[in-house]
User: Fold these one by one.
Assistant:
Number 1:
Amino acid sequence: MEQYIIKGGNPLVGEVDISGAKNAALGILAAAIMTDDTVLIENLPDVRDINVMLEAMTDIGVKVERITRHAALMNSSAIGGVSVDYEFIKKIRASYYLIGALLGKYKRAEVPLPGGCNIGSRPIDLHLKGFKALGAKVTIRNGSICAEAETLRGSHIYLDTVSVGATINIMMAATMAEGRTIIENCAREPHVVDVANFLNSMGANIKGAGTDVIRIRGVERLHATEYSIIPDQIEAGTFMFAAAATKGDIMVKNVIPKHLEATTAKLLELGCEVEEFDNAVRVVASRRLNCTNVKTLPYPGYPTDMQPQIGVALALASGTSIVTESIFENRFKYMDELARMGAVSKVEGNTAIITGVDRLTGARVSAPDLRAGAALVIAGLAAEGVTVVDDIVYIQRGYECFDEKLQSLGAEIEKINSEKEAQKFKLRIG
Ligand code: EPZ
């Protein structure tokens, strides 16, 4: 199994280009099947989750032509079936976006129930509530969700919990329903807005995305479009925290600073300098970080996908910090791995109390999930000595060329496949 091997201690300095937003692209790829015309999508991140989603779409009959690493043409006029194979759901939960898209366009969809995942149980009851409100009959049969309707009619839907997935899935199903749909208590994440903008570029009539109320007027059909995905604010934030944890100086390019406001605010509290430009942010950390407290919240609050990254930075801060994870119930598993590097923390339910230490030391650790894995790489970059990160397949799901981008910032990091390669790395760095 591939691993990252890291020799810590180098401040990260330089410039890094951010890729397209994985979580926007997953919704947009699903939404693209809602037209029979050809769609061009650009600025796709070349990451595992996107490649699996494109395979799932091909499997149901979408003609996908990858014209570059970051652009794909697709045509869904010859979709053969409306059932998605379990293999794809097992690899990425977000294949469930195909329910909303297939139901919206064909009034039928059969998609295996996504299992739980490493950060929590992650039910999809709100998705199903929305489909039913639009008039679909939804049954669970042999591990799959079967949704079908004679017609879908607009409805007034209130989401009990703020849910990115439910907002996007219901928005897609309502796009071609008859009449008006109002979705209340919506998620406001930039990737929800990006999916709405994409659908509108195909002729949908969606207003209010980015606020907690989205209003949709159903349309008969959707047409061709060419669309470029927004930059990934979570990848951007990850590199911002890498600068903070390694006392570096990084210009993070191809970002929308507005999407990073909660992250920037926390980095300023930690004592970093953050300078905003039109489509870049520069993070400079010249001294030991301050401690602080943080609570994850739906956008525009502090993102749960940035919780492990700040957890690592606070492990090295001066003083004690409190991190509260209010979105998922099991997102502190990385703290056990961090403890093996010398971090001091106590996890009580959805709260972690972190007592900063002067230094972390390299160790062999394992990535529990995508964002925690990236955070452990940051820990390895900041630690003294050599760190080996296992299970990096999680990280490759959402970070394009993660090791190459870090190397370009001066990090001593390599992807290895064997003990022999590990020894070669250690000999090289001396
Ligand atoms: C999306 O997951 C992201 N994934 C997650 O990013 C992100 O952490 C999460 O939003 C929150 O921002 C994608 O966009 C592919 P939710 P999603 O529905 O849509 C509960 C990453 O690292 N809930 O907003 O699954 C749920 O249990 C990934 O890229 C219900 O109870 O998250 C959670 O507690 C990790 N019922 C809360 O809502 C439902 O029907 C928020 O979940 C749906 C959700």
Note: DSSP finds 15 helices and 23 strands in the chain.
Number 2:
Amino acid sequence: MNRLDNKIAIITGGANGQGAVEAELFIEAGAKVVITDINSTAGEETAARLGDKCTFVQHDVSSEEDWARVVQTTLDLHGQIDVLVNNAGIFKVLTLEETDLKVWEQTVAINQTGVFLGMRAVAPAMKQKKSGSIVNISSIAGLTSAKAHAYCATKWAVRGMSKAAAVEFGPSNIRVNSVHPGFIDTPMLDAHGVPREQLVAKVPLGRTAEVIEVARVVLFLASEDSSYCTGHEFVVDGAIKA
Ligand code: NAD
């Protein structure tokens, strides 16, 4: 028996980076996965590479209509939703004074409103089944300060929203947790605009993380291995914030 046998998962931002690796790991663990992304070219490529257990749906996480379509497509295809990974996100390295209203609103729309819309959209199907796991990808910027003001604000919000949803959905046996990666080896890391050596120097483990090292924690939270874990933060940062 694999850890996600007979499970149906939606992973946002699944075209690239961590979302694509999570999709691959989930499929290896027995799941069928719907990956969504704003980038349809990369999304179609990833779905084709992952095979017939993966479907791509073009999706802007900040759109309520898009969420309704993603949920309906998943239910039409598979009849149930067991796992939602709210992974899509953007990262602008801008201080408070450098952040204009447009960047602020775009970051909130994708990183925060997207998570709200996603949790609300899958809740009816999970409640009907009386089970589900929602994994919201925050950041170490959702635990302490960061020189990326809007990003930091949204990642703290995701942490609080995850706790509130865990309490609200607990009686329906829907678990909600947040994951807080540190420096993960994806193109997003380059947005820091500093050489990797300078980032690595801040990490007690002495390296950035491979994407799979976050994906394994997300798999743990998606599966019944974490059946009594809900409402909490799971930090994957090599002790940067210890
Ligand atoms: P990534 O840029 O490789 O992936 C993000 C994905 O989200 C992309 O495929 C992008 O097209 C998609 N996306 C962007 N806007 C979207 C929208 N409006 N609707 C749907 N999809 C959209 O980055 P990643 O490192 O894989 O990031 C995944 C998550 O991990 C993000 O939430 C990010 O904030 C978080 N995170 C990353 C790091 C890191 O070091 N890479 C650290 C902490 C947290």
Note: Residues 135 and 221 are 7 Å apart (CA to CA).
